[in-house]
């Protein structure tokens, strides 16, 4: 139902993860009987996980680690590993920068030209680790570097930006025609982001195997503040899931919906899938791994934009290894570790056997779900529910 903002403007209500809760069904299951695996375009993963294409999260080495744990890591081909022979030294410098000068110095560091041989080298290192290799390019750079990713035998290409549309208009340059590019490109392509029904549907019609859903929800992203755009994730994912069903009805072709950003805990991941996601893309939780490239810090893909930065470098206090964060074990009780053990338990507790089944779970609007009855935890500072 639309609400009036004023005489000249109406708006519909949108919901984030903190506004909803998953309702248990009439049955429960043994967690060992729950299947949380994900399959996309012939590739199978034990976890419905993509690691965000951010330098603080994914390096060639961490991509292999995450792949061996059952996920799919996406390397940023416009990041530090494609600009510097010794990217580790640059990552170390970034981790030591004072907060007051971090953005300005990062703008300088990311001005270093991209080197084609480093793109090929990074992809080769991931493939040598025996895992599926995925990497991202922005729409502006796709045609320039497409031949490199093909020669390097990348497995999955992600075309990613703050907002990616199926119809980009420009009087200055020849824009990328996504539909034509995907139809002739010899690799499966995932595109995004988007945040509502119609843009999601049009991205699906480009021939992509999956779309990324999320504009501005990431922990290090400031796009919502800087640009004033975005849709809370529960609504954005549900809209995209509706577009997926229409596209399936029209074409018989299933396009995967990947929730991109805004998830901090296992409960958030469970809610994303209950709203209709097939998998999730996370960054900041993995940036908190002791073996993450960011060395205790995290920043987004637009943090270092030369003219209008839309992100910040934030502290990502290390919690444990990537394995502990993704699949445990853990002694933390706030849901920030063993994220996919939490997903499995959520599905078992509510009675669902697979990710696709869990997309059918009943969801309620529940703004008090995190605080109801939790006064003692809040008052004593045991768990922060703000």
Structure description:
With 386 residues, the chain is α/β, with parallel strands linked by helices. 33% of the residues lie in helices and 16% in strands. The strands form five sheets. Strands 6-7-8-9-10-11-12-13 form an eight-stranded parallel β-barrel, surrounded by five helices. A two-stranded antiparallel ribbon has the order 1-2. It has a two-stranded antiparallel ribbon with strand order 3-16. Helix 4 packs across helix 5. The radius of gyration is 20 Å and the shape is globular. The mean pLDDT is 94.
Key phrases:
TIM Barrel; eight-stranded parallel barrel; single chain; two-stranded antiparallel sheet; 15 helices; 16 strands; alpha/beta; 386 residues
What's the CATH C level?
Alpha Beta
Query: Could you name the CATH homologous superfamily?
Result: Aldolase class I
Number of contiguous helices:
15
Q: How would you sum up the major sheet?
A: 8 strands, parallel, barrel
Q: What is the end-to-end distance?
A: 28 Å
* Proportion in helices: 25-40%
Low-confidence stretches: none
CATH architecture: Alpha-Beta Barrel
The CATH topology turns out to be TIM Barrel
Number of strands: 16
Sequence of strands across the biggest β-sheet: 6-7-8-9-10-11-12-13
Strand content: 15-25%
Please indicate the count of domains.
Answer: 1
Gyration radius (Cα, Å) is 20 Å
Would you spell out the secondary-structure blueprint of this structure?
Blueprint: E1 2-6, E2 9-12, E3 20-22, E4 38-40, E5 43-45, E6 49-51, H1 60-68, E7 72-76, H2 87-96, H3 102-109, H4 116-128, E8 134-137, H5 142-151, E9 156-160, H6 178-184, E10 189-194, H7 197-204, E11 210-213, H8 223-227, H9 233-251, E12 256-260, H10 266-274, E13 279-282, H11 284-287, E14 297-298, E15 314-315, H12 322-327, H13 339-350, H14 355-358, E16 363-365, H15 375-379
Parallel strand pairs: 6-7, 6-13, 7-8, 8-9, 9-10, 10-11, 11-12, 12-13
Antiparallel strand pairs: 1-2, 3-16, 4-5, 14-15
Helix pairs in contact: 1-4, 4-5, 7-9, 10-13
